[in-house]
Every structure is written in structure tokens, then in C-alpha cells.
Amino acid sequence: MKIGLVGGTFDPIHRGHVLLGVVARQQFDLDEIWFLPAGQPYFKEGKKVSPAQDRLAMTKRALDGLAWARVCDIELRREGRTYTCETVEELRARYPEHEFSFIFGADCLDQLDSWREPERILAGARILAAGRGSGTDYDAMERKAAALMTRFGGQIRVMPFPALDVSSTLVRERMREGLDVSDLLPEAVAAYAERQGLYREVDHSSFTAVVFDMDGTLLDTEKLFIDAWEEAEGCVTPELEEALYAIIGVTRERSEEIIYERLGADYPYEERRIAVDEVFRRTRENGALPVKAGAAEILRTLWRKGYRLALASSTERELVIPELEAAGLLPYFDAVICGGDAARGKPAPDIFLKAAEALGTAPGRCLAVEDSRNGILSAHAAGMIPLMVPDLLPPDEEIAALAADICPDLPTAQTWIALHG
What we know:
alpha/beta, six-stranded parallel beta sheet, 18 helices, 14% strand, 3 domains, Rossmann fold, 45% helix
């Protein structure tokens, strides 16, 4: 495929950045445009730059709904200074089947000879240099491009581009002054920057992030789990039901311990677990696991309103990621924490604390949406604001007292968040 690359600090990403990708794709028949938030650009040293996780989150929101655009976080994953020549070479090594074009503003032609080893850039990617509207001297740009190609090799193409009175500096200045930026930023980017208080001090009286459990909260899997286990058992006893409800929301390792504690050391745990895993495997093969009513809507709404979103699940990562992908929910999460990522599972606070850390948000600024007793205990112990959406079991007095509220379903939870967020 022919891939266009739009790099930048994206602090914040604005409509001009997105339009740059639109125009380049049309003029040069590119298949996709990849947007690359910069890691630690050397030319920004000594300047205040928003945290990488915020710039990445805004970039994802800016591209929401654009089938031809994707976010590439290759520079954010690299430690130390980031240089374009290294980015190009890493991309070529990872994706040898693709043909890359780096899309820059017109000023890159005046600065290219001061960049680190520009010949390495041009050896791996064509450069598309965008003009600045009708007042641009395109003949001068062509002459400069020809001189640079003579000196460094490669290919540089000049790209006509409409004049836009927008820059990240202008956006930051207007936001600091409390002015409207709806004409400069995609709506979801503006909402995120405002809610997180990135460019001006905001007195948050409540939460700025929401952490969701998966099983029983977003995916209707806990009933499937119970039914599959009881079917494998062949008969149901009160002791078995109590044991199965006790392991809801805990890690696989802790589940095994609880089953043996309650049903005896000779209970055929592994045999039953294999049977249950087989039911889940068949269900996945036949399509996505059942999704709770309102799950996609609440995630999309919160995401577009600027909340940071994380998943905190006791389930193993190798199951969580494909299940979220199949359900179409994965793109809404800024962080995913799974069983194995934390030292202890629920009801210990570790998973929720890891989620808050990954979001860069204090636990007290996080709302935790959970369905189970163990999940509410875990969220409360982490210092988050627990909101319960019960699945199989209603809360007892202890859990009801710990939860900020009890909502019967996710649409009601969405309304609650709108009123209290």
C-alpha cells in the first residue's frame, strides 16, 4: 500500500493536520494516512509539551470515523530523542511491503538540511511538501526541492495546499484565554482538552476518567460462564452455586483457589474449566461474545466527551483484546489492564491502581463501573468512585454502602455520569 505519514507534536492536533492528510491522499492517490505523534522531538527540548498519553488520546479522537486514517505510536514507544530518519527506517523495516511518503509543511524545505541525516529520510520515504495557499511561491518551492534532491537524493514533491489560519500555538493561546476553538479543533479533541484541563487550569469537582470492568459489565459473559460450568457439572448444588458466584471478577488463579477451598481438594477443577473454555471458544468462533445493552453507546459518548477511558479486567490479556476487538469496543480505551498486569487480582486494588497509572489520572479522579462484589471492593480500595451496574447478583448492604450509586443497566449509568461528571 501507499502510505502517507503526517508527523507532529500534535499539542493539540487540529483541523489543519487532518486536512493535510485529506489533501495529500487525494493529490497523490495514497491508500492510507498514518498520523505519528512525536515522542521527544529534539527541537522541543526546553519547551513545555503535554504528556504523550494526552497527545495520543487527542490524535485518536481527531481521526474517529475516518476509515483511511490511523494512528501510529511508533515514536511514543521509543525512548529518548526522536528523529525522523530513525522513524522512517523503523517503519521500512516493519512494513517492507508499504511505500511511504512523509507529508510536511512548506517550511520543512528551509529546515531539512539542518535535520539529522536527511539523506536517510529521503532514502526511505518520498517527501510531500505542502504549500500555504494562493500566496505561496510554488516556483521557489520547486527550485528548493530540486536543490535538496541534488544534495541528498530521493524524491521531493510540492503539494498545493489551501491557506489555513490555524496552528497548535494559536489553539493553546485561545484555550488559555477561555475562547471558543470549535473552528480550529475536531469536536472530540476540544472536549478532551477541556475536560482534562490541558491548556488552562480547570477546577474539576469530579472525575475525569472512567474505568470499566469487562465481564458482566460490558460483555454479557458471566451468565454464559455459570451456565457452561453447571452444564459441565451435570447437576447443581447450593455449594457449587455459591462457589461459582464467589469467583466472579477474580483472576483465574484465585478462582482455582476458591473452588478448592469451597468444594474440596479433589474437585475436578481443571476438567470443568476446560469444558467452560470450550464453550467460550465455540461462542467466539460463531461471532462476538454477547455485548451488554448500551455498552458501545456509553463508551463512545464518554470517549467523545473527553473522558479518559480504561479497562480493568481480571481476564487474561490474550482473551481480553480479541474479545474487545470482536465486540468493536477496543478503540475507545486509552489503556487496557488485564489479569497478569497487576501483582494481585480483585478484590485487591492493584488492577484499578494500574489503570489509573496508565491513564495518568489520580485514582480519586476515576469513576469505576463494575458489576460484581469483588469489583466494587477493588475499586473502593483503590480510592476510586465505584458505580455499580449489577449483573447476576444484587449488592448486599456492605457493597451498596461502598458504591456511589447502583444503576440497573448501562444506559442508566450513562445518564448518571452525565449528571455527576
